[in-house]
Design goal:
The chain is an alpha+beta fold. The protein is built from 15 helices and 21 strands. The strands form six sheets. A six-stranded antiparallel barrel has the order 14-17-16-15-18-19. A five-stranded parallel β-sheet has the order 8-4-3-12-21, covered by helices on one side. The longest helix has 17 residues.
Amino acid sequence: MVEPTLCRLRSRCKIGSTEETRNGKGLRSMSDEQKTADIIVVGAGPAGLMAAIAASERGASVRVCEHLDRPGLKLLATGGGHCNISNTLPEPEFMARFGKRGRFMSPALKAMGRDALCGFLAGLGAPTHSPDGFKVFPVSNSARTVQEALVRRCKKNGVEIRTGMAAKALSLAMEGVTGVETSAGFVRTPTVILASGGKGYRDLGGSGSGFEMAERAGHRIVKPVPALVPLVARDAWVGDLAGVSLPEVRIGINLPKRSRQGVAGEMLFTHRGVSGPAVLDISGDISELLESRDSVPLCVNLLSQVSLEEWGARFDSWREKEGRKRIANLLDWHLPSSLARTVGDLAGIPKETTGASLTRDQRRKLIERLMSLEIAITATEGFEQAMVTRGGVSLKEVNPDTLESRIVPRLFFAGEILDLDGPTGGFNLQWAFSSGYLAGASAAGG
């Protein structure tokens, strides 16, 4: 739809024979400016560095603008510093973990999927392996190996990485991008790749400035919220269990039209609430709901591998064989003792209750707490603790085959700035590399 796009461009750019453009700070004459690079990449994270490499290997001159003093700082922190770059899921299952928007990434995965990424990194001197058969890490077990390998390749390809240089605004004309206003002055370029990440981990680069630049260029921004982030609980008893971890829970959301089956994995009680992989994986959904609710009820199956029938059989066995032991002590066989006592208290079971004296009603209430323990979540730990941002540039306004804007010609996007996020386990880093590669290749002409 050309006409709406032209109208949106005209609303923010003065177009004329003198090649004047509006960049948010007034009109600038472009007639005397010098082009400094074929492509400007905003952001030196994994998506930005990969985009720079892909573009430079196709003959483009590339400059990377990074507002921090080092490239790839957030990459160094991924996977606890071990850099879980991907996983071994087949492509359809991989995309499904991103939800209904996951199909958007298909062209990027075809351009740089897991096998291609691992081969590429091996060629840079950063070979990978999968110790558990699922998560993929560098053999060195260090994110620094990957970060240094990417920077070396950039330098080898002649990519100019400018640290301490913050991109402020895009300069646009009818034909598309004409430059970038930065903290070091104006840079003229015909092509920009926004790979500036999300809002999480501000000290590692999460400023959210790319969202503002894209929005001023006419793109719709789906409201960013924290994802892969610990959750804050209302109930005091949750904090009393700080440090208790469970290896295999199943967490759902106890609301209409929301699955109570949710996600499975490890959960950790903290001083303020809950964390751990299973909690992180569902936290983006919680963040969205908290935008319109004071609290969100989580329901936790504390031992997801134990069925209702199996719990019934265990209680029968306790009645017959361990009738004189207290229920709290019997639950200790399956749960940490502090959690076992808490579950009993929440179910209203007196401390002196034994296996033989447990009534049918008490048994029902106890099984309910074991299989669906409700925790009221009132907040997340915020962007300061969020590994990923949910929300960003609307996918409807970006061509998935090239990652070029459908609104502004020669403006491309890569990585977390787009409205696409996945769970823990190498999903988001693979997307960053894949999207960076496709955006860089497309920007350089395929």
